[in-house]
Design goal:
Elements lengths: L1 H17 L2 E8 L12 H14 L4 E5 L3 H7 L5 E4 L15 E4 L3 E10 L19 E9 L5 E8 L5 H19 L4 E6 L7 H9 L1 E2 H4 L25 E5 L3 E8 L15 E7 L1
Parallel strand pairs: 1-2, 7-8
Antiparallel strand pairs: 1-12, 2-4, 3-4, 5-6, 6-7, 8-10, 9-10, 11-12
Helix pairs in contact: 4-5
Length: 276
């Protein structure tokens, strides 16, 4: 009888562990530039950290952050990150890093690729003229349940129309190539509204959290504010995509502010999701 009761208890614990929810987010941090004046990173970095902690982000993709900004974030001792700079594949330039809770996930593998015709090295793609664009990814194990998944964080070009379109194809190809049949999440600033071909390409391969959430989306539709507290927030350009292995329970665009200022020029997007 004790063995049977022990087995039942074990099964219940396994069921509880397998249903653990994940708070997943994407957050364009806005690069650290003195030109932002009152909104420059040193004036808002603590507000960004407070927001992350208050909303209990478990794992999130960042965009635009320099290495120093990411090091500021992981001053919160529960977090660490993976990802490299887009300029040299080391620390130079903006990152599309993945920040995650050390007590909740173990990083098993990681890598990076560039949004270009030569994705294995720092490079510009197609009609992009300003910047290299990078995607960073990691394979993670959720420690409590033992489940593994891949997480991709990306930032599409802001000028090149063809670069954004081709980046959609490349992302779908790379996610299939890297993750194969393992569960996968892709987040980022796609600099693209839902009517564009690149977003439709992503939606054809992965679930758009905004569309598949069980609870109706919370907050404004738009995700870019330009540091204007009265921004209309109509255009959705930041996304969280999940594959068939995940169920999205909740979706929100957060509008947290301090002194009538936003912590970044993008709103963070956050979902609560669970493995199916």
């Amino acid at each position: 009888m004790k063995k049977i009761l022990g087995l039942i208890a074990g099964l219940l614990l396994m069921q509880e562990a397998s249903s653990q929810t994940l708070n997943v987010a994407t957050y364009n941090l806005r690069l650290n530039t003195a030109g932002d004046g009152i909104n420059a990173w040193p004036n808002r970095k603590e507000e960004v950290k407070k927001l992350i902690r208050y909303h209990e982000f478990d794992i999130f993709g960042t965009q635009e952050g320099f290495a120093g900004q990411l090091k500021d974030l992981v001053e919160m001792p529960e977090y660490t990150y993976t990802g490299v700079g887009r300029d040299d594949g080391k620390e130079a330039g903006e990152h599309s890093a993945i920040v995650y809770r050390k007590d909740k996930f173990k990083l098993l593998e990681h890598g990076d690729f560039w949004l270009s015709q030569t994705p294995d090295k720092p490079s510009k793609g197609w009609d992009a003229t300003c910047c290299n664009r990078i995607c960073s990814w990691g394979k993670f194990k959720e420690i409590k349940s033992g489940k593994t998944f891949y997480f991709f964080s990306v930032h599409f070009d802001h000028q090149g129309v063809e670069a954004r379109r081709q980046s959609g194809f490349l992302m779908v190809q790379k996610i299939k190539e890297i993750a194969k049949n393992t569960p996968a999440i892709c987040v980022g600033d796609f600099n693209s509204t839902p009517d564009t071909e690149q977003i439709k390409i992503m939606q054809a391969s992965l679930g758009d959290s905004y569309l598949v959430t069980k609870m109706p989306p919370y907050g404004p539709v738009g995700t870019f504010n330009g540091f204007k507290h009265d921004a209309p927030l109509k255009d959705r350009i930041d996304y969280i995509f999940v594959d068939k292995h995940f169920e999205v329970l909740k979706y929100a665009v957060l509008t947290d502010a301090y002194d009538n200022k936003y912590p970044s020029d993008h709103q963070p997007v956050v979902i609560k999701t669970v493995f199916k």
